[in-house]
Amino acid sequence: MEKLRRIAKPVSHFVIVAFLWLGVQLPAAHAGIVGTEAIMSGAQAEQDRQRIAAVLERADVREQLTAYGVSPEQAKSRVDSLTDAEVHTLAGKIDQLPAGGDSVLGILFAIFIVLLITDILGLTSIFPFVKHRR
Question: If we measure between CA atoms, which residue out of 114, 106, 9, 94 comes closest to residue 49?
Fold first, then answer.
């Protein structure tokens, strides 16, 4: 038992000095709260870049770019060099353009809903999957 105490005392002193030395040498870690906006803005920017790239891949857009004297590769490199705010603005403007192609799908969906409601109410008989009360 005496032999164990003789060994434990210098070892404990060494461990204490080692912890104190490491505490002085290593800088303290600073943590901060990352806001949802910061995370979402990065994800949103990536989605916007993908949407713009998909628009640039369309054949009619490529033809129009070529007609203006801009190669599709140049347009893609210019989009890649835009900031996140500029990409978000550009993607928002693409949605507002009449030639975006999304408006036709929306109109067809609205017509389908109107016809479905009139069929459910019994005013029309267009869809065979709607059961009418008679």
Answer: 94
Question: Rounded to 5 degrees, what are φ and ψ at 129?
Answer: -85, -5
Name the residue type at position 20: L
Would you give the distance in Å from CA 115 to the centre of its chain?
Answer: 35
What pTM was estimated for this model as a whole?
0.45
CA angle at residue 13 from 7 to 17, to 5 degrees?
Answer: 145
Dihedral through CA 105, CA 108, CA 110, CA 115, nearest 10? Answer: -160
Q: Taking the domains of the chain in order of start, what are their residue ranges? A: 40-100, 101-134
pLDDT in tens, 50-83: 888 888 888 877 887 787 777 888 778 777 777 7
Q: Which of 27, 37, 126, 131 is nearest to 88 (CA)?
A: 37
